[in-house]
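Suppose you are handed a protein chain with no further information: no name, no annotation, nothing but its sequence. What can you learn? This example shows the usual starting point.
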Amino acid sequence: MGVAMLLVLAITLFVFYVVVQRALETKEEVDPYAGRSGTTATVATDSTVASGGSAGNGDNTSPTVAPTALRPTSALASSTLDATSTISYRVTNLLDGDLTTAWNEGAEGPGIGEWIQFDFSQTIKLARVEIANGYQKDNERYQGNPRVKSLKVEYSNGTTQLVDLLDVMDFQAITPTIQPVDWVRFSIVSVYAGEEWDDTALSEIRFYAKSN
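A reasonable first move is to predict its three-dimensional structure. Written in structure tokens, the prediction is:
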């Protein structure tokens, strides 16, 4: 009788532990940025790239000194869509200068909470970040896949931004933190729904460092 009661008690405690753990995991998955309005990106142009531009985050770069294009030394993604026999969706597609290639997240659903991170070889001051939203190879793929509606941008210095992206086939710019950083992480907060698929895509990300 005693053994049976101990067994029942053990099972009860185990079930309680599992329920509590799942509740905690669910709580952690709720993003505090979801539903909040962030800084809206602006469509990038040659003139704003040359001047450093602004998306309303406070730093003004001299119009006579163009920012320097910067290539990260490494790129990492929380998930990536499996490649086909002819197409790869790897995260380094975001740095290849080719809008016909893209990174697609590989999580179930539209990838809310999935992220990509870029590391630099040294501490730098960013002047500008440009993002090509969605899969821009053609209109069918762009509309067929989800595009990012809002991103949480995290920097190695502890600064965090919420950025609302436009649903356009073009580069769009955001003004990053003015403090030095070693890496930047972009997390998907919300998306524009795709007409055919549910794998959220980004085609390209360009970084520009301050020249002085």
